[in-house]
Design brief:
Blueprint lengths: L1 H5 L7 H14 L30 H14 L2 H11 L5 H5 L6 E2 L4 E4 L2 E3 L4 E3 L7 E4 L2 H8 L19 H15 L5 H16 L4 H8 L6 H7 L4 H23 L1
Antiparallel strand pairs: 1-2, 2-5, 3-4
Length: 251
Amino acid sequence: MVAEWLAGGKRNGTVPALRAMFNDAASAKAGRIVRSNPFARLGISRGPGRPHEQPPSEEQVWKIIRSARELTTPSFAAWLQVAAFTGLRPGELDALRRVNVDLDRSRIRVVEQFSAATRTFTLPKNGQVRDAPLTEPAREALVSLPVESEFCFAPIRGEHWTASARAYHWKAVRAAAGWDGSLYLATRHFAGWYMVNVLELPSEDVAIALGHTDGGELVRRLYGHRDVSRALDRVAAAYEQTASQTQLRLV
């Protein structure tokens, strides 16, 4: 498969999938057998990504959350709100236990994820345990939920949410909210966009919040989605401020 791709083949989605599966295998219990990833460091470009695929606006995200509150369980609505305002991956939220939420320090300890492929708990992506920010909208959603199990988000059936359990609810919610994009774009991608464009945080800080280890490169390439209107407003405002200061010096 790799040779075919390198030779110009069209199966360009296969190798990244294989690479991801071997990373998961190496970081899980199978790591005792799978000690290295044969698909890593092949020198294959990741491609341009999806820099032009825009996440929903903040107004649209809140519409999605309101639709979830009206149509689904409080647990799923809270799941969406925490996802959109922390940037945690879906599997990390599915596996999130209350013991790993520190309200005093405003931190979420990300120690595991629930793998939809293997239906088991594994280490987070890249095999690294990390801290994530417990933002105010996320805190609000979490404390509103009753304690029903050790997991933060408990569906009516089952101990915690899974991708298959979420799919039915998400389909109804996005239809009601008028959003035709993906769940990932409306949550993790939105979180990255919001941190960069609205909060105007450095890409390096956003990368840490999202659990990246590349110093902000992926945020700039995929998640930043620089809002053109906001960028132009900042440039104009900067010039206006400079002009005012120059006029004061000339008086």
